[in-house]
Amino acid sequence: MPSFTSIFKNAANIVESLTDNHKGPLHVGEAMACWTYFSFSSSIIPYFEIGINTTSDPELAKLLQEGLKVVKSHKQELAEFMRKEGVPLSEAPESKPNSNANDIPLGAKFSDNELINTVNLNFVIAADMCAASASQCLRQDAALMFLKFQTEKLSLGLKSKTLMQQNGWLKIPPPYNPPGSPSSE
Question: pTM value?
Answer without folding.
Answer: 0.84
